[in-house]
Write a structure and sequence with these properties.
The complex is a heterodimer. Chain A has a single domain, classed as 3-Layer(aba) Sandwich (Glutaredoxin), CATH 3.40.30.10. Helix content of chain A is 37%, strand content 26%. Chain A is globular, with a radius of gyration of 20 Å. Chain B has one domain: Cytochrome Bc1 Complex, Chain D, domain 2 (Orthogonal Bundle). Chain B has a two-stranded antiparallel sheet. Chain B has six helices and two strands. In chain B, α2 packs across α5. The longest helix of chain B has 16 residues. In chain B, 51% of the residues lie in helices and 5% in strands. The chains are: A alpha+beta, B mainly alpha. Chains A and B meet through α2 and α3 of A and loops of B.
Chain lengths: 218, 129
């Protein structure tokens, strides 16, 4: 008897805990990344402001040969990842999962997609164009971009995602399978494993909650 | 209490017994093929060809083992659609693994296709171009 009462309590608290986490994560996504406190004086008093981690300016070229910058994503959320077209391992799964999101947010102008190639030698504008048309997607909704190797690897660091050349990996590159969610203020709001359908569903739910919240604030 | 515990073990034991038998062909499929050709065998839009009811597999039966082993490049037509991505090679697969894999693909995606034997696959692999 004592055993079952104890398990009941454990079970109930577990349910409460998970529901609590879910509630928090969907309606109040934190801003991720390093923060910097800045002290300043307002009316003679010292106030501490927080500088949040922000994605710096960038400029890449998309599958249509057009320049893609922060302006491309003005007033929008975007989901970004790092991949390469000849990747034999996780990229096809990431592309398939990104397509699920692309289809789901097709009519939502406030949501866009940005895929960076990490194989800048092979993945030219033409190769990216070919890839995008084979999966039947187009810019400006979904931008496939290339640029200098330094710029791509540099921006990957800003997204706190990893991307590097690695001769020992299949295809020659190692990279994270993360989908990173960026808000209209260029802040990182979430990381999701782009290879896991459940994580992609979570992204979908959380992004919809953010969009709904924004509507309320208007 | 002891009785409760033993019924718990019995239930857990029954669930264990329900686990399906291992399917070695499926294991190879999940590791080597599924990322591109998909869990459902439907491929990915115009990028990766489907295996499900693929006429290409039926028409190129004697070449399929070689394609799995050595990969392939260039344009192919599958069920009326053109595909042109590079398929990686799998030089470390054994003849037995390829036979199991082909029979898993048959059972899952090409139910009418004739079963592959180890002898057939072994002969086909000897004639790879």
């Amino acid at each position: 008897m004592r055993f079952s009462l104890f398990s009941l309590i454990v079970l109930i608290s577990a349910i409460f805990q998970t529901s609590c986490v879910e509630y928090k994560s969907e309606n109040n996504l934190p801003i991720l990344g390093p923060r910097e406190p800045i002290e300043k004086e307002v009316d003679g008093k010292v106030v501490v402001d927080t500088i949040y981690h922000t994605i710096p300016n960038f400029s890449f070229t998309n599958q249509d040969g057009n320049e893609v910058t922060q302006k491309t994503f003005a007033n929008s959320y975007y989901i970004t990842d790092f991949f390469f077209t000849s990747c034999p391992t996780i990229c096809p799964v990431m592309t398939k999962n990104m397509l699920i999101l692309y289809d789901d947010f097709e009519g939502e102008e406030r949501v866009k997609f940005l895929s960076h190639t990490i194989d800048t030698r092979h993945d030219s504008v033409e190769v990216l164009k070919n890839y995008a048309s084979k999966i039947e997607v187009s810019a400006p909704k979904w931008n496939f971009v290339t640029g200098s190797k330094e710029d791509i690897y540099g921006i990957a660091e800003s997204y706190l995602a990893s991307a590097a050349e690695d001769p020992n990996s299949p295809g020659g590159y190692i990279h994270s399978g993360a989908f990173v969610l960026i808000d209209p203020n260029n802040h990182i709001r979430g990381y999701y494993d782009g290879t896991q359908p459940q994580a992609v569903e979570k992204l979908k739910r959380e992004l919809k909650a953010l969009l709904k919240n924004d509507e309320k604030l208007k | 209490m002891t009785k409760n515990l033993s019924s718990l073990f019995l239930i857990v034991g029954l669930f264990g017994a329900c686990n399906p038998l291992p399917n070695p062909g499926k294991e190879v499929y999940v590791e080597k093929c599924q990322n591109c050709h998909g869990i459902d065998g439907n491929g990915l839009k115009g990028l990766y060809p489907p295996l499900t009811n693929a006429d290409y597999i039926k028409e190129n039966r004697e070449r399929i083992a070689c394609i799995i082993m050595n990969g392939m490049e260039g344009e192919i037509m599958v069920n009326g659609k053109v595909y042109n991505e590079k398929m990686p090679s799998n030089p470390l697969l054994t003849e037995a693994e390829i036979t199991n894999l082909l029979n898993y693909i048959n059972s899952a995606f090409l139910p009418e296709n004739k079963t592959f034997t180890l002898k057939e696959v072994s002969n086909n692999l000897r004639d790879c171009k």
